[in-house]
């Protein structure tokens, strides 16, 4: 097949103003993205599967408190953390998704446990946590997932709401991490994980665990999205990229650009996505001010960017 | 626009053996389907919206204990009922979905409350019930939803499992109701509601509330599915019909047939779907032995069928 591997990741999109980004946080963000690229590409370089690579990359992003997934997830309006995640393997379209999850250290591994250890695709709430438990995945206490920054963001959001205002910072609804990969056999996979939106209603599920919306992998492309989840669901963002490539013969670039700029953007669907095709091409379009992102292809140095 | 209205409904698909169907149940099933067709078509005839028509049709199916949605929903392995539902309006692609719901008499109205009364698309569990409560929807006690037939089916499923066997009756995983409509203005809508599979794991979510899988409406077609939900999700069944019509120029019939017989059937995706386009054409393909179904078009008598 491709003889090329490729891995692309994102750590969320939104109004990431340069002025709000201290040099320290900027540096830490690039370092976090690089660690995730390294975790995934080490597997691909050794001939490992795209599925293992996206799982490893997303685990690294979940472990990094800077990003809104796993450790460092945002809080709901009730002061809790509810995490969603999904993983999909392109070759056979197997998929696993969890929503409203709390407990497993790496929600993406819980999604993978649903895919590999159950006949189901989507599991919610405590039942999803139970599958992770049965799979022997590590769990963490609330103190592990807690970060002061996210807690302060919730207090700020609640204070604004109490005054009838909404945050001007669209980034509060844009925290998600994800990875897509093409392995040396030309197999594709996608993985996405999120804490959702700061101050979201408990029980709200965004596009991350909705196969075809925020996460998709088949034999033609793999996609992981980040943005205004409801719009990604309503327009089936990820599935539409695959459909345009398959039915219209569009390139990965053209299809991904079309969906981000012509379908999502005009419909209040701010955000972006990372995508890869079976030839190892990558696309990382976004219509927001920035998107934490990075990619690496075989034999090349990894690249990370924010704006 | 079309000057024709059309409404198509289903009450589930699966191995519905003629030998298992008493004349009394067969007659009651046709009568239940006819009531739902009448509830929806009365609205369309008066110039009402496709959205109102599919909501009314699905409410009628939920109220009928013969079908696996609302009253008469199946039981999980824990002996509880967990309902999923979704509704989508084609013109503006607004959508609402609920999963793991118990309480509201009509889960489809809860899905619509999410669509119309919240900024979200998908809500799960108690949070979904809360939105229904805030919308003033009627709730019912467990005794209202209980039917002896479904309870006996659970006991039978659990007994089989205890002996390491599985039911030969695929119908246990195929209970769903749904409706699609094209109104006199050529607007489309889809609605789907289900109790899931008998003896399903608590927390399992099928294709019904996954927009693009079991439910979809846009400006070209509306689709509601019933069948092996996991496969409908993995292949994005409903979205693929819309994509084939939009990108390949296929007719509703051709696109729906392709997905049911060429995409789902070869991948263990037994089941079927109802679909309608903006010209009022209807398609009701299935790859299972039967599918409770019916349709009505303006000026014509309603048609119902099982095999």
Would you give an account of this structure?
Chain A has 307 residues and is α+β, with helices and mostly antiparallel strands. Chain A has one domain (6-305): (Glycosyl)asparaginase (Glutamine Phosphoribosylpyrophosphate, subunit 1, domain 1, 4-Layer Sandwich). Helix content of chain A is 35%, strand content 23%. Chain A has nine helices and 13 strands. Chain A has helices at residues 23-45, 50-63, 107-117, 125-134, 142-145, 148-162, 229-234, 237-248, 252-264, and strands at residues 6-14, 83-89, 94-101, 122-124, 177-182, 188-194, 204-205, 215-217, 221-227, 271-277, 282-283, 290-297, 303-305. Chain A has an eight-stranded mixed β-sheet with strand order 4-3-2-6-5-1-12-13. The first copy, chain A, has a four-stranded antiparallel β-sheet with strand order 8-9-10-11. In chain A, strand 10 and strand 11 form a beta hairpin. In chain A, helix 1 runs antiparallel to helix 2 (50-63) and helix 8 (237-248) packs across helix 9. Chains A and B meet through strand 3, strand 4, helix 4, strand 7 and helix 7 of A and strand 3, strand 4, helix 4, strand 7 and helix 7 of B.
